[in-house]
Amino acid sequence: MTVRAIIGAQWGDEGKGKIVDRFAEDVNAVVRFQGGNNAGHTLVIDGHKTILHHIPSGILREGVENIIAGGVVLDPFVLLGEITALEDRGVIKSPAQLLIGSECSVIAPYHKALDVAREQHRGATTIGTTGRGIGPCYEDRVGRRAIFAGDLLHPQRLREKVTQSLLEKNALLAALGAPTFEADTVITQLVEIGEKLRPYIRPANIRVRELLDAKASILLEGAQGTMLDIGHGTYPFVTSSHTVSGSACVGVGIPPQAIQDIVGITKAYCTRVGNGPFPTELEDGLGQELRDRGSEYGSTTGRPRRCGWIDAVALTYAARINGFSSFAMTKLDVLSGLPVLKVCVAYELDGVTYTNEVPVDADDLARVQPVFREFKGWTEDITHIKSFEKLPQAAQEYVNAIENLSGVRVAYVSVGPDRDETIVRNS
């Protein structure tokens, strides 16, 4: 039995989907443990691109069970669209391939409306949410008024919850100048979608513990990244859930000692979507070049990602919080052809030097001065390379520098978007 957690080590969009798909070759189940459809995991198999928002990234592997656990907030309409698209392609052939946790909180139409209305009301202080209703849905979970996926199968219980929730939501929407909702309309929509999803809805936490008892191999798939964690990220410019490794235990319902391996995913450079501090951001032509080279546009929203040099301070911070066993570095090929590469090795702020911690105050992080170390680039095309030792010497030195600075071994190096374009380093 092996239980391995896959965690974003930056601000999300690190390429977790590709790495999960790579590891899924040898597991029994992939379990998504937090977040919602504000994240998109992109997989490229034989040149064909698949973008997943809710469904775990093991779905393209034959014989792998895919589980959406209770820590996820679920837009049932988006999820049904994903299922239908994968059924049409012949990927999903049976409900046995996918389990939707009955304990997942459901994103209702009024959650999305409230998310958008709040963001519009903030004006210049906007956070940059995706408007998918993720935050308001998590609020309802904490406020003990959540609608669960299991409730979609019980119309009377659903009616009571929606009616009660709309007393508050409609008042908030009206105060923000947004349209309100009729309870009957929302209930009808949710009951109809619940019937379509019925074959997939079962208790996820029970199923995961059954797999543990059976000594199965399990991948735990996270969304977003460490620097977007609601408690440990650049608050308030964060997502609405805990993205760190400890959240996997809570979201799935397993003890910490069940996890034997925690892999942090980092790009060979750094990106961020939305507002908030980003110490190594390149706001010049080179930043745009990285964006174009790496196709850095959000798979969920299409928004251009902010691009910058890799941040070893933030990576070290992420490693200390998550307990990474190793790193998987993605998109090393994007740096090919750049004559000089930079790595942020420290922050300077008010006479204090930070090398392995990040200022907890977002305003302070926005004021830090990054300290960079320069490295030689390489010109060779590396997408065809299958072993680390065959990479250009400059590429090897760059990867080794990240290891040395963060204290975490880079055990996997992605040199292209396709499933097979990944180097596994010898230990």
Please describe what this structure looks like:
With 427 residues, the chain is of the alpha/beta class. The chain has three domains: 3-102 and 200-262, Adenylosuccinate Synthetase, subunit A, domain 1 (Adenylosuccinate Synthetase, Chain A, domain 1, 3-Layer(aba) Sandwich), CATH 3.40.440; 105-197, Adenylosuccinate Synthetase, subunit A, domain 2, CATH 1.10.300.10; 265-424, Adenylosuccinate Synthetase, subunit A, domain 3 (Adenylosuccinate Synthetase, Chain A, domain 3), CATH 3.90.170. The chain has twelve helices and 20 strands. The strands form five sheets. The protein has a ten-stranded mixed sheet, with helices on both faces. Strand 16 (340-349) and strand 17 form a beta hairpin. Helix 3 packs across helix 4 and helix 3 (109-122) packs parallel to helix 5 (155-175). The longest helix is centred in the middle third of the chain and has 21 residues, at 155-175. The mean pLDDT is 94.
Question: What is the count of helical runs?
Answer: 12
Structural class comes to alpha/beta
Q: What is CATH's topology name of the largest domain? A: Adenylosuccinate Synthetase, Chain A, domain 1
Strand content: 15-25%
Largest sheet: 10 strands, mixed
Shape category: globular
Assign a percent range to the helix content.
25-40%
CATH superfamily of the largest domain: Adenylosuccinate Synthetase, subunit A, domain 1
Q: Kindly report how far apart the N and C termini lie.
A: 20 Å
Average pLDDT, rounded to a whole number, is 94
CATH architecture of the largest domain: 3-Layer(aba) Sandwich
Give the total of beta strands: 20
Q: Given this structure, which CATH class of the largest domain is correct?
A: Alpha Beta
What spatial order of strands do you see in the largest sheet? 9-7-5-2-10-1-11-15-19-20
| CA radius of gyration | 21 Å
* Uncertain runs: none
